[in-house]
Specification:
Aminopeptidase
Length: 179
C-alpha cells in the first residue's frame, strides 16, 4: 500500500474513485456524515466540493492505494481559519474500504495524518467518532484521549441517532494529555 497527499486538482480527478470508497464506507455502516443509501452522484459531488478547501489550505487529504492503484482509504485534516486556533486541526473522514480492512491501513493513515500535522506545527488534534464503533479502539490504541460523549449527536447511516465520542491528541513538544 502507498499513500499520497491529494491536491485540489487530484481531488477532482479522483472524485469517482473516492466516491466509490465513500459509498462503500456508508454501505458498510460507518457513520461518516451520510445516510444510506448514498448515491454515487452525491458522493462524487461531495468530494469535488472538497477541492476548494484543499486549494485554500483549509483541508489536507491523503489517499491510500492498493497494489493495483485503487483507492482503498483516506484521511483528512481540517484546519481552522481563525488566528487563535491555528495550533490545532480536526482529523476527519478516516475511511478504509471494506476489502482492505483488518490489514492495519487505518492505523497507517492515522499515522500519516499525525506526522503531517506535527510537521505543519499543529500541536493538538481532535476528532469525533460514533460511540462504540470499531474506530474507537483504533484511536485509543494510538494514544488518543477520550474527552467525552455527546448523546444523540449524529444519525448513523440507517438514520438512528447515536452518541458520539470526542477524542484529542497532543503532538510534538506539547506532550501527552493527562488521564
Amino acid at each position: 500500500m502507498t499513500t499520497a497527499r491529494l491536491d485540489a486538482a487530484e481531488l477532482d480527478a479522483r472524485a469517482e474513485e473516492l466516491a466509490e470508497l465513500l459509498t462503500d464506507t456508508v454501505a458498510g455502516g460507518a457513520s461518516v456524515g451520510f445516510l444510506a443509501p448514498l448515491g454515487r452522484a452525491d458522493a462524487v459531488a461531495w468530494w469535488q466540493e472538497r477541492s476548494a478547501g484543499a486549494a485554500a489550505g483549509r483541508l489536507a487529504v491523503w489517499a491510500a492505494y492498493d497494489t493495483d492503484g485503487r483507492v482503498t482509504g483516506t484521511v483528512s485534516l481540517a484546519f481552522p481559519d481563525k488566528p487563535n486556533s491555528r495550533h490545532r486541526a480536526e482529523l476527519v473522514k478516516l475511511m478504509v474500504h471494506r476489502r482492505a480492512r483488518g490489514q492495519g491501513l487505518g492505523r497507517r493513515l492515522l499515522a500519516v495524518a499525525e506526522e503531517a500535522a506535527a510537521a505543519a506545527g499543529v500541536t493538538l488534534l481532535h476528532l469525533d467518532t460514533e460511540t462504540g464503533s470499531p474506530a474507537e479502539h483504533l484511536y485509543r490504541s494510538a494514544g488518543w484521549t477520550r474527552v467525552g460523549v455527546i448523546p444523540d449527536y449524529a444519525a448513523d447511516p440507517a438514520g438512528t441517532l447515536r452518541p458520539t465520542t470526542i477524542y484529542c491528541k497532543r503532538l510534538g513538544a506539547a506532550g501527552p494529555l493527562p488521564g
